[in-house]
Design goal:
Length: about 120
């Protein structure tokens, strides 16, 4: 799976990435619509996360990042207002290699994720 989009780096200090990534989603949703977008989290460090916004179909204007991703992912679906609980459950088994977030206007979310060196189920 090739993922092409606009990359930004966000601080994870004091969990501020939740606010700044949310603002990134709002900015891109105004242009492309929330249901046409997906966000990739990757390359975590102690103090930062790389986050890439892409179109589900096509290539987003101004793309500055491209990566080849695995084809197999764990998938969790839920409600956006419960995102913190969803991530608590995901992270209880350790850190991630990649995550892809998708949202819709009805408040639903789909999180795909993969960890390094773990057996994955095809979904």
């Amino acid at each position: 799976m090739k993922f092409v989009g606009i990359r930004r780096v966000f601080s994870t200090q004091n969990e501020e990435q939740y606010i700044t990534i949310g603002e990134f989603w709002n900015e891109m949703s105004i242009i492309y619509g929330i249901e046409n977008l997906m966000g990739l989290g990757c390359n975590w460090t102690k103090n930062s996360i790389e986050y890439v916004m892409a179109l589900k179909n096509g290539i987003i204007e101004g793309s500055n990042f491209e990566i080849e991703l695995p084809d197999e992912w764990e998938i969790v679906k839920g409600r956006t207002e419960e995102l913190d609980k969803i991530y608590d459950e995901i992270y209880k088994d350790g850190s991630l290699l990649y995550e892809i977030e998708e949202f819709d206007a009805q408040g639903n979310c789909t999180i795909r994720y993969t960890r390094q060196n773990e057996p994955r189920n095809a979904n």
